[in-house]
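Work package 3, deliverable 3.1, input record:
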Amino acid sequence: MHSSELLKGTLQTIILKILKDHGKMYGYEITQRVKDLSDSKMLLTEGALYPTLHKLEAEGFLKTETVMMGKRIRKYYTLTASGRSVAKVRVTEFMEFIKTMSSVLQVQMS
Amino acid sequence: MLNGEHTNYIIKDLTYRGIIADEFQDEVIDHICSAVEKEIQNGLRFIDAYHKVLRSFGHNAGLRETQNQILQTSNKTIRIMFKNYLTIALRNLRKHSFYTFINVMGLAVGIASCLLIVLFISDELKYDRHHKDADAIFRVDTEIKFGVNHVKVATNSAMMADALRNDYAEVEHSARFYNSSSMLIRRLDQNFKEKNVVYGDSSVLTVFTIPLISGNSKTALTDPHTMIISQQTAEKYFPNEDPLGQTLIIQNKENFKITGVFENMPSTSHFHFNIILSLVTEPYNKDGQWLSANFFTYAKLKPGADYKVLNSKFPAMIEKYAVPQLKMGLGKDFTIAKFNAAGNKLEWKLRPLTYIHLHSDLQAEIEPNSDITYVYLFGAIGLFILSIACINFMNLSTARSANRAKEVGVRKVMGSLRSHLIRQFLTESVLLSAFSFLLAVGIAWLVVPLFRDLSGKDLLIPFGSGFFWMIVILSILIVGILAGAYPSFFLSAFRPVNVLKGNVSLGMKSGLIRSSLVIFQFSISILLIIGTIAINKQLGFIQNTKIGFNKDQVIIIRDTYALENQVESFKEEILKDSRVLNGTISGFLPVSGTDRTDNSYWPQGSLPTADNLVNLQVWRVDYNYISTLGMTVKSGRDFSKEFSADSGAVILNEASIKMFGIEGDPIGKKISRYVDEKGDGNLDPNRTADLVIIGVVENFNFESLKKNISPLAMILRKSNGLVSFRFEAKDAQDVINAIEKTWKTMAPGLPFSYTFLDESFAKMYSAEQRLGKIFIIFASLAILIACLGLFALTSFTAQLRTKEIGIRKVLGASVSGIILLLSKEFGKLIVISFFIAAPIAWWGIDWWLKSYSYKAEIGVYVYLLAGVSAFVVAWITMSFQSFKAASSNPVKSLRNE
């Protein structure tokens, strides 16, 4: 299990990338996806996920649509056009970051 | 899928746990449901699954934390925040529409006044800026102090322009204007009187930016008898024709060919010529006299040249050119050092073009200029009015805090932060300010035509300019934030516990700041009232003081030189009318804008020295001059046909007798001057001309009463420019019609124009009159806005004290007693304001009157009048509300709640 400290800075990148790859998703679905992709090594807490989603929405990177499911209302998130380009930038940035980290820490990334 | 029962349970439980935010609720329910479903699939019971999921959220604390974070994100979102503040602000403003109205109106009137004043000032500051390289253009002014004479003129010698260009490398171009006046212009058979006609060098087109629409600016004025005319003049004389190459007849005699048409000169220029005649036409342009000053001389310096350096070279120039001529007139041993040592002065000085309009008040200006004092004065008034309006705003908002204190308390209890409240109140005030500004722009747009007449300026609100709107928006924010800052910080600092318990001290008791602001407002209002009364009193004084002649019932017929030989018979013809009592032919009249010449004389029997040489105004008059204008002969006699020797006689005014230092009876004594025999401008020291004094007239005013009466002489000579008639008739129009009829028969094709002496006299004080009027308007606006604020404040206090008033009435208080009680608080403030304003006003008036030789007495009663009127107006304002409160039925005020 990775520490949440490490996770903090990458949360937006993760959400943006996952939404980019999968299109329309709702909150719980995102947590499950992260869990699957990371072999349960990474756990997206709800307390971190929802504020980040709302923030991205306020910034105009995400748009939402709601679907009634009986008594429940499910809110789906998708990337906007600007969100898509940001997702790309964030991932590239992160790749750069890993490269820099590997030379700073003097380790070889597999 | 979970069944409905379970879903309901989760929804209820989450609400119970405090998850209520719209943004989050649905989402978290769905999330938890989904998670619970998963756990149930893994084999857990519903309730265990639910608690496991809740644990992953961090139970209540975690859930609420998440919800708070989401709420904060959405609060930070500008759009939503603004929408919320805006809604609340609009609701609040609508709820208190009375205060909103007073606030907006007061602020709008204040801002509109301020806007007009800013337009006025910016127009004043724009003068002559349209010329290319305006900062490199200068006018050469002359100052001569010789004995008792002291003249400062805007003109210089005919030689100056060429000398400047030839002698000084830093002068790039120089140009002259000469004899700016009104002239008769004729194309076919109808003469028109055109104002603003001038002679000019061809180089005026290089020094100044006067764009030609047609014609060649290089050659336009180089030949004699050529002229360039403005576009509007061209349209007047040559509608739908090409004026280039056409001819106009000037002064009924000389033909001038049109070699160019220039764009109409902008109003913000210190000259507005319609016609420029080539100066080479006029032989006088070669006049060699260095001490005469008749040419407006301008120099354009090369880039980088410092005019102060050039200024410092003028003494050498005086030595080179003027001193030789002075030696001829004043003796061979004349030196400039001795001349200066005796307290005399001859100085040439460059004045920046852009300073002329606001800083130049010399004799013989092309047009009367404005004064920087007005700019300061109006700027101050604008600021005063704006501050009064802003203070209203602040006062009303803080006063209303009593009503809003509970709102603040509740908001704070509900978790509102101080910054939220500040933002809320600032939104309200910016919103009000925006309303006010829009209203103000509307008001300004409506009254700008009126203000245009009042200020004599061609003012326009620059609706099309982005800069203007930027300033408006910036001002909205500044005024809104400034005006809202105090109330918002004041209100948001309330402690909810105190407010909700009702412990906050409210109303006037806490209003120390509010009281001082009211004092400030009324001090300014009283100041403006005193200023207004003083200015108008001085104005009345000037116009009604003993001026030494009778200015009423005199009509002046203009341009009578056009009658040529017929002037005399025209006068005789008019005099046949029994309503016309007397008439005189003379271009010299005791109002500005008529002819003036001067010459230096000394008492006969001594040699001319700096001490006894007097610069006299020499007026050419006829036999009936003194009797027509109603001057008083103090000793001696008027000119008379019975004395054939009167052509060598002179009548002096008292001032000149004093200046000559003539002891005893002046009658029969003589005064002398040198004669310019050859006509080349050089005086011949061997030849003098003498005049015998036959009479002395009482001093009369012929210049603005700002100045002392200077020495004046009248001699019997022809001067055909004007004919004045004294008449006696109820209806002046009848007399005018009769005169016009005679004029039409004797001078067909010549324009008939007339003025009345008293009107021309009043015109000399048009600047002061304008000032007086504008002061009245803005002073009334200031007091109106201040009273508007006071009105709202009293109504507010009265409302606050409804219960108290009710109880007092039940206990037997009278209506008048209650009115007194309510008015007392503000009455005190106005009395204090008076004692602050009076000394400042006294000081200001004293300063203003310094520029006048004749001052009106501004007595104590003026101050008292201003104080009392401010008090009365304020009191009427207050008593209206107080009376309403005092006369209401106590049952009503005590029964509610």
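The mean pLDDT of chain B is 84.
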